[in-house]
Design brief:
single chain; SET_dom; ASHR2-like; three-stranded antiparallel β-sheet; binds S-adenosylmethionine; Histone-lysine N-methyltransferase ASHR2; four-stranded antiparallel β-sheet; SET_dom_sf
Length: about 425
């Protein structure tokens, strides 16, 4: 096994190559529930909002600093005042410091001018779906990265994702064709960076397609604050080069958190990965690439379409035999429904049965649903949340019994089984 230590705070992880899974992160020592195993800073961040906001998205679009993505609050205090870009006046920054930093990085004169040209030519892009408008932002951000930080651009190119490795190659190829033609017809081509150029050449449809594939496989979403109805969507996407080595498991043993508004700058957009439960040395550490409450057919479809692989994890092996999978296949093309789908009724019923059995291992003896315990203990019980719970970091030798949800941020006391919403803590506690 080819092993390379990764620079985590305490060297807790190694990068290894695993046949059929590519690079993976494994524990170099036994790891404890709640332990922070990785802090990672983004090499590239871009807004998750469309370039041409609809009435539904326009109120959120100008809510965040275009550099650090903290929520903008109009106030008399200089640290939270709103500073528009002097060139375009469209992009807003939470402080003069963020504005200055952005002008020499993510909002360079080339990005500012290119975004302006796209916005001034509203004949094509507004008709495209939100995803395409966000892809346009990503492509500008990625080409700009080569200008402002060639070494980070090189790192981006080393991440997993080739035009050919996805089942949705056609959609990547179509997006690349459309967006590259649009950008190259309206914007000044970015000058080639001072690094060996990729085999796709510089500023080409092929390179744009490769970059879009890297984004699709590796981008992490930074969440908006929870809205009053408990909904939380993405405010920005980021490429985190170390966190990109985590493979997927439908029963993850670690999950990642972001604290964009509460962490002090300049590292407020860092993500933190914490262990959900104890694992022994040598075990692969995996995240779930989407909320764990997706049902089996949807998980398999998303993993194949978006990430190009079939999942053979323990949970999938069990759920592949569940009888209602065929019915769900009939709905396979209903993408809207897929997005909204929560754990299917079969899972709910099995969870209830496991819960009623009342034993501490939460139905591990039930061969139809051996992972019920995971859902009872580690899935957020808030309506429509679907987040995963991990304990707060241990202090010294003591593990924390406070669990935090990585989606809604809810804190609750770990009563050993969980799942009933009791024991929730307010943030003050
Ligand atoms: C974010 S990358 C993870 C790191 C990647 N293995 C690498 O070599 O860089 C996502 C890609 O890893 C692979 N992958 C992740 N989880 C996997 C799994 N459970 N089984 C097989 N391949 C997996 C897929 O190719 C997927 O598109």
């Amino acid at each position: 096994m080819n092993m390379k230590q990764m620079s985590t705070s305490g060297g807790e992880l190694s990068v290894v190559e695993i046949e059929g899974r590519g690079r993976a992160l494994v524990a170099t020592q036994s790891l404890r529930a709640g332990q922070i195993i990785l802090r990672d800073s983004p090499i590239l961040l871009y807004s998750a909002f469309p370039l041409f906001p609809s009435s539904a998205t326009s109120s959120s679009c100008n809510c965040y600093c275009d550099y650090c993505f903290k929520t903008l609050q109009a106030s008399s205090s200089s640290s939270t005042s709103i500073n528009p870009c002097p060139e375009c006046s469209v992009h807003l920054f939470c402080s003069p410091k963020c504005l200055t930093a952005a002008r020499s990085s993510s909002h360079s004169p080339w990005v500012c001018e290119s975004l302006r040209r796209l916005r001034d030519c509203p004949s094509l892009l507004p008709q495209q779906p939100l995803e395409c408008q966000v892809q346009a932002r990503f492509l500008l951000a990625a080409y700009n990265l080569a200008l402002v930080s060639p070494s980070h651009f090189q790192t981006l190119l080393t991440l997993q994702g080739q035009r050919s490795c996805l089942n949705s190659t056609d959609s990547i190829a179509t997006s690349a064709q459309f967006l590259h033609s649009l950008i190259s017809s309206l914007c000044t081509p970015p000058p080639p960076p001072q690094i060996p150029l990729p085999q796709e050449g510089w500023f080409s449809i092929e390179l744009s397609a490769t970059l879009l594939a890297k984004d699709k496989l590796n981008a992490f979403g930074l969440m908006e604050p929870v809205s009053e109805d408990g909904h939380r969507s993405v405010r920005a996407y980021g490429i985190y080069p170390k966190a990109s080595f985590f493979n997927h498991d439908c029963l993850p043993n670690a999950c990642r958190f972001d604290y964009v508004d509460t962490n002090p700058g300049p590292y407020n957009t860092d993500i933190i990965v914490r262990m959900i439960h104890d694992v022994p040395q040598g075990r692969e550490i995996c995240l779930s690439y989407f909320p764990v409450n997706e049902n089996y057919p949807n998980r398999q479809r998303r993993l194949m379409e978006d990430y190009g692989f079939t999942c053979h994890c323990d949970r999938c092996k069990v759920e592949a035999n569940w009888s209602d999978n065929d019915d769900d296949d009939d709905d396979a093309l209903d993408v809207e429904q897929e997005e909204e789908e929560v754990m299917d009724e079969d899972t709910d019923q099995q969870m209830e049965a496991a819960s009623e059995s009342g034993n501490e291992d939460g139905g591990q003896a039930d061969s139809d649903f051996p992972h019920a315990y995971f859902f009872l203990r580690y899935m957020c019980s808030r309506n429509n949340c679907g987040g995963t719970l991990a304990p707060l970091p241990p202090t010294g030798d003591s593990s924390s019994n406070i669990m935090e949800c990585n989606v809604c941020g809810n804190l609750k006391n770990d009563d050993g089984v969980g799942g009933d919403g009791k024991g929730e803590l307010s943030m003050d506690e």
